[in-house]
Amino acid sequence: MSQAKQLPRPTDAELEILTVLWSLGPSTVRDVHETIARRKPTQYTTVLKTLQIMAEKGLVERDEKQRAHIYSAARPREWTQQQLAGDLLQRAFGGSAASLMLGALAAHRASPAELAELRKFLEEYEKGKS
Amino acid sequence: MTQLAAWIRTPVAQSLGWTLVHFVWEGAVLAAALWAMLRLFRAAPARRRYALACLTLAAMPAAFAITLAAIWALRPGVVAVPVHWAAAPLADAPIAAPAARFRWAMILDRLPWAVPVWAAGVAFFYARGLAGWVAVRRLRYRGVCAPAHEWQARLGQLCIRLGIARPVALLESCFTDAPVLIGYWRPVILLPLGCLTGLSAAQVECILLHELAHVMRHDYIVNLLQSLVEGLLFYHPAVWWVSRVVRAERENCCDDRVVEVIGDRRAYAATLALLEERRAPTAALAATGGNLMRRIRRLTMESRGAQTSRAPAASAAVLLAIFAAALTALPAKLPQVRHAHTRAPGPVAMAVAAATPAPQQAAAPLPTPYKKWLREDVAYIITDEERTAFLALSSDAERENFIDQFWQRRDPTPGTPENEFRDEHYRRIAYANEHFTGSVAGWKTDRGRTYIVYGPPDELDDHASGGAASTYPYQQWRYRYIEGVGTNIIVEFVDRDGTGDYQMTSDPSEKEKASTSYRKWLNEDAAYIITDEERAAFLKLASDEEREQFIGQFWQRRGEPFRAEHYRRIAYANEHYTAGIPGWKTDRGRIYVIYGPPDGIVDSSDSKSIFWIYLSIGGAGNTSAFIFEDSDGKGEFRLTHDPGEPGRKAPH
User: What is the nearest CA distance from B44 to chain A, expressed in angstroms?
Assistant: First the structure.
């Protein structure tokens, strides 16, 4: 998968489009633009142009079978996350960033034993509910 | 490195160093108290336990600050403070200092190095925290995607239900793999991608409620403060432990809130479990918040002990009591471990008692230059502890090192090549030797000592020929402020024997200074005219106010012209009869002050006898003759014939 390694790191604008594509799944430019425009005013042509550039870079794949082209992310979300883990700031200060966020789950993932216990709990819960 | 070495000798660094040491036990005590109370009140509601943990965490920097303030208040003065005012006789100093004590001093000497290490740690944690904060802020804009309108609307409804006025944004993020809340003023809930589509609406609602509970409780800002405390006191494991307790209880609080709203604690627990299962195995950002398994078990515990409401109040009281006890114990502990030169300024009064500097007899064979350094150069400013430590040194290299450190500790601007304190000190010695040297070296005189320790006075009244109220030449030195002594300090020096050796009569730190001037009034100003009854009455007075009043009445009874004439006579006597002793004290001076100018003066042909004739002492026409004789030709005429003193102590 030498090609995967050669994929350039996405810019912030490209990353946003990728996020939308991961969230919505394969989408038209119109869908992507609509989602982005919910957060900030954006020109349709800007989104279109960015998507075209990303397609050239190989960050997204374009399905031209239909009249409205369908774009999809070339790599799953996890790939980008690992790619971005190389981000110095994120890597060096992820720990302290984590302590500045509030969330329903701990930063430390549950161990396999705990996950097994959780699964058991979920099964019991489903049984109890049904 | 040398600059750092100099800096750690400054009072700031020393105070910080001791605060760091004290916080080791303070932090441990506080954490132990929290641990005990959390065990005691295991069944208390999470929010009470959370409050308790927060209180403990807040008490930690408070204890640190109070300790620092206390130690700072007791720090040694750096400039112009009589650290060692009355140069203690060397004989008193144990020449062979106990070895153990010296080693202790060595440890104390190295301890300040902990301060730069600590400061570097704080800088690291704060820089890391700042970078983390920047990274978190970027999460708002990078790799986010606004969810469908209906979710934002659902969130708005929940906000209204919970009574949250601030607008809360909802975003999907490709960076987080667990739901998190960031920001205080403009809170944003970040959900991992796919969270909204993978969970049921009820489950998403649970998660949103949990994050909204954080918003309601102002947890973000508390968490930020918490990070500041962690960074400041990073070296103490107890701080991290308490902080972890706070985080865990915080999540419990939010869990409780969610359950209160949705009512189904098992469904909520299942949502948390599902979320955890869905987390990707890759590293991603998530919040730090307690142990999930423990939370789920806690949530699913059906039978929960009755929540006692008096428990938190009781525990808060216990915590406060322990904290107060620790604080009161602090000052008692301080003197034992304070650094060697943190000796409270000795009462300056000792200067009068020990008017002569340190005896020159040495018991220990100390090489001459160091002997001179100890007994002359720094005699007035070295502390007992430093003196003892210095005397215990065995090699010249150690002594050189000691002297270096001695000055470094006092350098007001450590890190610069100049040591202003040392330069000023030697300048003062030079000045004292130049200006105050009489029969003894200038630095040894009272004026020299005062000058060296306190510096030049802010004002100087010089009465070289004595003043109206005094017959001795005297000087008054006024200091507006002397650290550790007070404000507006007047030091008086009197040249009693006319040799130029001014001696201190009043002491800057002596509260009875005023009384001294009243004693002078009694024994000098009014000595010849006050009646025995008046004298007895005056001596019985207790306060300066009463004395002032007494003096006022004393002169009132005799009238202002009398008073003016009286002081004129004293001045006249001082001007004309001073010879070896002040004029007013001589026999002629005494007679002159009491009876005024004689009506006639007859000198004998050999100039050895003088006759003073008064025509009206004790009544008109009553002629009295006083004979003064200068037996040894020195000009000190002694009264050899006294006609009796019919008018003694009568009005002039």
Answer: 22
Q: For residue B545, with 0-12 CB atoms within 10 Å meaning exposed, 13-18 middle and 19 or more buried, which class applies?
A: exposed
**Furthest-apart CA atoms within chain B: distance in Å:** 134
B299-351 pLDDT tens trace: 766 444 434 444 445 555 655 665 566 555 554 444 443 333 333 333 333 33
Q: Which residues of B touch A41 (CB under 8 A)?
A: none
Q: Which fold has domain A2-78?
A: Arc Repressor Mutant, subunit A (1.10.10)
What token pair was written down for B360?
A: 């020159």
pTM exceeds 0.90, yes or no: no
- Work out the minimum CA distance from A60 to partner chain B, whole angstroms: 15
DSSP secondary structure string, B576-587?
Answer: HH-BSB-GGGSH
> Under DSSP, is residue B626 helix (H, G, I), strand (E, B) or coil?
strand
The torsion angle over the Cα atoms of residues B203, B207, B209 and B211, rounded to 10 degrees, is: -170
Q: Over the stretch B290-303, which tens digit does the pLDDT of each residue have?
A: 567 777 777 766 44
Domain spans of chain A, in order of start: 2-78, 86-129
Give the tens place of pLDDT for each residue, B153-162. 899 988 988 8
- Whose structure tokens read 């494991």? B237
SS3 B185: coil
CA-CA-CA-CA torsion sign (B554, B555, B556, B558): positive
Which element (helix H / strand E) includes A107?
Answer: none
Percent pLDDT > 90 in chain B is 13
